[in-house]
Design brief:
Elements lengths: L5 H5 L7 H15 L10 H15 L2 H10 L22 H16 L19 E7 L1 H6 L1 E12 L15 E2 L8 E6 L2 E6 L8 E2 L12 E12 L8 E4 L15 E7 L5 E4 L2 E8 L1 H6 L1 E6 L5 E6 L8 E4 L15 E7 L7 H12 L6 H18 L1
Helix pairs in contact: 2-3
């Protein structure tokens, strides 16, 4: 029985492009695959026929020979394989290769796009930038310009990697798939194409400015909006501001990690602020008013109750940090630190001794403590 014309087998016209041949074959292979045609006894033979046609027409040299001599180009030893195109001793390898192609088409999207690298450029890497801000800047928020060392698209070749902006060419090793397959028994082993590195394309005349990478290293100034309420560990993502992709691929992202520096006056805990304020012994004893700073640069007057002790806290509502994602602002807590006077004059010492003599009932905490100490010692003696 005479062989059918390979173009008729795939249902395409002579002069069809490589993409048209491949598309027609994949459509035919999926349609005729034996696993999908259990009730059609001729499906396997037709599948192998389509595969044989594709093995010839996808190869530029074999296709040229077939266009000139027809099937005779592969008879009488011309094909090197007993009448089978491409020098195969049988159809087992062709079948496995075709099955792998069909599997890619049927399940490639589901499995994460195994279909190869045609037209696919490498995405640029994500970048990290550590940014220090003061507590005041974290309180109010700010617009800040940063210089990021990164890779940007090459202006000489418009990111294509080719001199003069020429289009990259399909890799001849993998036919644009980005992967090559090797037959090992019944199994097909797939690996990244060594010629194009998985891109599916090669640059015949690389751009001199970027050596064919499509990108160059450069410091780039970026204006960053730091929202009010950020704290150490806050991460800000700038989509597409990372490293440029290779040969026109998409850019990565830039992640800015915030570190809020230590403040001389305030300590922060989430949205609350704490400020330790020294007060004199007389103010703590008699009471009075003091002024304390607030993070917005203002002042607040605080009334100190008479008899206040060190460590006493007072709250200033809504005087803390703003919430990063909305909500009420935090509070500010004043912690009193009663100071003991130093460098006393003789007159001051005499007055304090006189005061001490009159203060037997004015120190309730001391009285309670030493009463407990006496009880402890007595119990130890017993």
């Amino acid at each position: 029985m005479a062989k059918r014309d390979y173009y008729d087998v795939l249902g395409i016209a002579r002069g069809a492009s490589a993409d048209e041949i491949k598309k027609a074959y994949r459509t035919k292979a999926k349609e005729l695959h034996p696993d999908r045609n259990a009730d059609n006894p001729d499906a396997e033979a037709q599948f192998k026929e389509a595969n044989e046609a594709y093995e010839v027409l996808k190869d530029a040299e074999k296709k040229a020979a077939y266009d000139r001599f027809g099937h005779a180009a592969f008879e009488g030893g011309m094909g090197g394989g007993g009448g089978r195109p491409g020098g195969f001793g049988g159809n087992q390898g062709d079948f496995a290769s075709a099955f792998s192609d069909v599997f890619d088409d049927l399940f490639g999207d589901f499995m994460g796009g195994r279909g190869g690298g045609r037209g696919r450029a490498a995405r640029g890497a994500d970048l990290r930038y550590n940014l220090r801000v003061s507590l005041e800047e974290a309180y109010s928020g700010l617009q800040k310009t940063i210089n990021v060392p990164t890779s940007v698209s090459c202006s000489s070749c418009s990111g294509s990697g080719a001199e003069g902006g020429a289009e990259p060419q399909t890799c001849p090793t993998c036919s644009g798939m980005g992967k090559v397959r090797a037959q090992q028994g019944f199994f097909t082993v797939e690996r990244t194409c060594p010629t194009c590195g998985g891109l599916g394309q090669i640059i015949k005349n690389p751009c001199k400015a970027c050596a064919g990478q499509g990108r160059v290293h450069k410091d780039r100034a970026l204006s960053v909006n730091i929202p009010a309420g950020v704290e150490t560990g806050t991460r800000i993502r700038l989509a597409g501001e990372g490293e440029a992709g290779m040969r026109g691929g998409p850019s990565g992202d830039l992640y800015i990690f915030i570190e809020v520096t230590k403040h001389d006056l305030f300590e922060r805990e989430n949205t609350n602020l704490f400020c330790r304020v020294p007060v004199s012994m007389t103010t703590a004893a008699l009471g009075g008013d003091i002024e304390v700073p607030t993070i917005d640069g203002g002042r607040s007057r605080v009334k100190i109750p008479a008899g206040s002790q060190s460590g006493r806290q007072m709250r200033l509502r809504s005087k803390g940090m703003p919430a990063l994602r909305g909500g009420p602002a935090g509070d500010m807590f004043i912690e009193l630190a009663v100071e003991t006077p130093v460098n006393l004059t003789s007159r001051q010492k005499d007055l304090l001794r006189e005061f001490e003599a009159l203060s037997e009932d004015n120190n309730p905490e001391s009285k309670s403590f030493f009463s407990s100490v006496k009880t402890f010692w007595d119990s130890m003696k017993g």
